[in-house]
Amino acid sequence: MSNEKNGWLRESSGVSLEEVNSTIDVRNKKGFWRKLLAFAGPGSLVAVGYVDPGNWATSIAGGARFGYLLLSVILISNLIAVLLQSLSAKLGIVTGKDLAQATSASVGKKMSIFLWIITELAIIATDLAEVIGSAIALNLLFGIPLLAGIAITTLDVLLLLYLQRKGFRIIESIVIVLMATIFIVFVFEVISSKPEVSALFAGFVPRTEIITDPSMLFIALGILGATVMPHNLYLHSSIVQTRNYERTLKGKKEAIKFSLIDSGFSLTVAFLINSAILILGAAAFYGTKLDVTEIEAAYNLLSPTLGVGIASTLFAVALLASGQNSTITGTISGQIVMEGFINLRITPWMRRLITRLLAVIPAFIVTWIAGSKGTGELLLWSQVILSLALPFAVVPLVKFTSDKKKMGEFVNSLPIKILAWTSTVVIIILNVFLIGYIVVTGHDLG
Q1: CA 377 remoteness from chain centre
Q2: What's the first-to-final CA gap in the chain, in angstroms?
């Protein structure tokens, strides 16, 4: 790794030169499993964004209102996520630039600023979900009022700064432990809910009513926005470079292979968790005539409905783990896109404080005015905002990785190009349809 590259890593991701060289050097690792372990980590950080509190709101609402029908949306979203995240990692490994840097180098200054603003809004929407989710979890577990819980979440900034000083491996390890906690909780919850197995598997088959029913499409787009998150594409293309691999043809091929295994495994775990959340919502609440479109309602009704006393408490513990997990990646992503698009470098603590305050302020105002119902609606809409911002990240990513001049022999093959562009077109068409419907009818799809 060159000094120039080390310097870029230190400035853009907050990882110091010593941390990169001493803890994540993969050049001298021998054997498949040792190398895989050395490369493992970035996939977990990326997968965190796929199981944040925003996913909970959309998946619970989808399961409670439409049964298992939207499991197919989770499956398709996850397949798209695996494809796009693999392209993101490949871009970073091959070019030595993250997606924000590559995009900025290909467009004018005004367009860079525009794309930065769009991406910042998506990151704020992401952070908003984490703020609300953590505040709700604190309220459910300890009775802390929502407004106080929202204020407490600003302290996450100090926690993240402390973790980063300890090294990137520490952050990755904590994320993996929290992900495992969430996974174990939902395995227990799903088993306790006794879902109808035949209907469950049938839910993974796509149905036309998902597109034709606007209210179902709204939730489906929320799931898509909560699963394939734009900031994750910028994040992945950057953090794969925290591995000190040989910058040769062979070294890049090896890095791409292990990165694909790492992210594929982590995103599969995220897929299982997201599916479990929707399955839980469907098995526990669909057809009961209970109004369960908010996380608090799910918590209050879960134990009585399942007949398992600890079910609600475990649900809240997993929610708190999810919120704390996601704040780590959201704030790192914010610094990456700010530096990549507009080359603005500010101190890490200031960057994280700004990002968090931009999420805390609207959450605080909505909670003050509308209470818990307002936060639930804000959580759902934050995920739709992510879905609307997604094409601005996906189009450049697919374009760059399909460019022979930029990627050389690592350019996307024809089948990958077809799949990637098809996914991009589907995302854009669904978003245009949703916006058009809202503008024309003025319906409240929430």
Answers
A1: 19
A2: 50
Place of tokens 């000094």: 3
Which helix (H) or strand (E) segment holds residue 200: the answer is helix 197-202
pLDDT at 145: 87
- Whole-Å CA distances, 239 to 215, 235, 327, 397: 37, 6, 16, 16
- DSSP structure string for 79-144: HHHHHHHHHHHHHHHHHS--HHHHHHHHS-HHHHHHHHHHHHHHHHHHHHHHHHHHHHHHHHHH--
Q: Which residues pair with 25 in a beta bridge?
A: 244
Token pair in block for residue 179: 């992900």
Annotate 291-349 with DSSP letters as a single string.
---SHHHHHHHHHHHHT-TTHHHHHHHHHHHHHHHHHHHHHHHHHHHHHHHH-----HH
Residue 356, classed as helix, strand or coil, is helix
Q: How far apart are CA 292 and CA 58, in angstroms?
A: 11
Tell me which DSSP letter residue 50 carries.
Answer: G
Helix axes 32-39, 249-285, angle to 10 degrees: 70
Return the SS3 of 196: coil
Given a cut of 50, whether residue 9 has pLDDT beyond it is no
Domains delineated in the chain:
3-441 (1.20.1740.10)
The predicted-structure confidence for 290-299, as pLDDT tens digits, reads as follows 665 566 666 7
One-letter identity of residue 128: L
183 close to 34: Cβ distance less than 8 angstroms = no
Task: Check if the beta carbon of residue 63 is closer than 8 Å to that of residue 278.
Answer: yes
Mean pLDDT of the chain: 77
CA distance to 21, 60, 363, 426, 427, per residue, from 206 (Å): 47, 19, 34, 14, 16
Cα–Cα distances in Å, from 270 out to 6, 43, 116, 145, 310? 31, 10, 27, 30, 23
Count of beta carbons in the 10 Å neighbourhood of residue 158: 12
Say if CB 17 and CB 6 are below 8 A apart: yes
pTM of the model: 0.79
The answer to whether 437 touches 220, Cβ cutoff 8 Å, is no
Distance CA 293, CA 282 (A): 11
